[in-house]
Design a protein that fits this description.
Elements: E1 7-10, H1 17-31, H2 41-64, E2 72-73, H3 76-79, E3 86-87, E4 95-104, E5 108-117, E6 127-129, H4 133-140, E7 146-148, H5 154-158
Parallel strand pairs: 1-6, 1-7
Antiparallel strand pairs: 2-4, 3-4, 4-5
């Protein structure tokens, strides 16, 4: 069986991308249970939970210091350190970029882009992004990978 990291999903936002990833990740979890070894991502998984919690406390503290904690809407997908839309940039070959959204009731959305070491991306069994297919091909290559995408009616995507 092909290694899970050989699956790559690249698609546009609002095309069913997140739903497709959720389904694929659940299938892989049921088919290929994670077994801890010294070099497995399971150690990374444990560290990411802790680091995500600590980082989220800082985000919440930022809004609380401005009296906005009761207006903050912070989706669970973005609370994981590497959660949110991701992309690579050939100018930074060892890093990934992650977009975070914070909703503020009555104020709108607040967007933040963070850059992390690419190794953190190993948390996910499937490489995925909503940006730059050419950049991903450059960073990860094509051999031995299943390249997947999601599709949705363009009228729905535009609205």
């Amino acid at each position: 069986m092909q290694h899970a990291r050989a699956n790559t999903v690249i698609s546009l936002e609002r095309t069913g991308f997140s739903l497709m990833l959720s389904i694929l990740n659940e299938i892989l979890r049921r088919k290929q249970p994670i077994h801890a070894t010294e070099d497995s991502p399971s150690y990374l998984n444990q560290a990411l939970s802790f680091l995500s919690h600590q980082t989220n406390l800082k985000y919440k503290q930022f809004f609380a210091q401005r009296g906005l904690e009761h207006k903050l809407l912070f989706n669970g997908e973005f609370q994981l350190l590497v959660g949110g839309p991701k992309w690579v940039d050939p100018k930074y070959p060892d890093d990934i970029f992650v977009r975070k959204y914070f909703g503020l009731k009555d104020f709108g959305d607040f967007l933040m882009v963070v850059r992390y070491p690419k190794k953190l991306f190993d948390y996910y069994p499937i490489t995925h992004s909503t940006k730059g297919p050419v950049d991903w091909l450059t960073s990860y290559g094509v051999d031995g990978r299943n390249w997947l995408t999601s599709y949705r009616n363009p009228i729905v995507v535009a609205h």
